[in-house]
Design brief:
This protein has eleven helices and eight strands. It is of the alpha/beta class. It has one domain: 3-Layer(aba) Sandwich (Rossmann fold), CATH 3.40.50. The chain binds adenosine-5'-triphosphate and magnesium ion.
Length: about 280
Amino acid sequence: MRAASLCVASGKGGVGKSFLSASIAAYCASRGRTLLIDADLGMGNAHILQGVKPQASLVDFIEREHTIGDIRTPCGEGLDLLAGGSGIPHMAVLQREDRARLSDQLAELEVSYKFLLLDSAAGISSQTMSFAAAADRLLLVLTPDVTSMTDAYGFLKVHNQVRPAGEALFVINRAKDEEQAHKTADKFREVSERFLGVQPRWLGFLPEDPAVGASVNRGTPLLLDDPSAPAGRALTGIAGQLFSELECLSPRGLGRSLQSVGGGQPLSPSVVRET
Ligand SMILES: Nc1ncnc2c1ncn2[C@@H]1O[C@H](COP(=O)(O)OP(=O)(O)OP(=O)(O)O)[C@@H](O)[C@H]1O
Ligand SMILES: [Mg+2]
């Protein structure tokens, strides 16, 4: 059995990936055993949004003190976290042998889970693109800011070179209102279609909402903290769509796919084959 995986990513930083991942993970966990992977290695904060204090992180795994199973932090019923560790710059670019060990052990570990969620680092580093390409689905997060859209386009362009047949989904976060969200989504679809020939699928938008910051500060995913807040209601709809998507696909196996995406080396086009 392989787990179905989703990578939450963005071009620009600070757009809401970790906040979204925290709640999507909580949603999935109430329906099947879920592993949240903080793929922002060396700068992770997924544990803060789950309100837990990890005893170990992927830093300990890489430094060979633990197996990957040992570094899991329980976050509540059905949800475990692989914390990314913070303030460790060398984690942002893993060595080839460390990447190989990570993918091998993930391949073994994932059989215990139904869903894997990757909370990615921002940007288009080789490591980040590998995680995005290896996951079954990519969820791009962008805001109405023109810089966020430009960077999301840049991300999709590179992703499309690495995994041409991969299907990208996207959400607009921090929209002022529905009209602004629609305009942003239309523009993003239009440039993606025109210049890349791909059609990312829009799942919806989340409004700017003070309840988000409050839930982050409390260390509780918004869906558990304040599901009836405007962003909470929107998130329930988006998490539901993602859950259905993950439940219906045939998982390729994250560990196995990671093994085929470059081992930390610069990625070459079309290295990920759809199997
Ligand atoms: N819809 C929203 N309304 C209000 N605030 C929001 C919303 N979405 C995100 N934020 C705020 O934006 C901040 C950044 O969010 P988050 O940490 O999830 O971004 P990120 O994309 O994971 O950042 P990084 O690229 O650094 O990993 C959070 O402190 C959160 O409170
Ligand atoms: Mg983050």
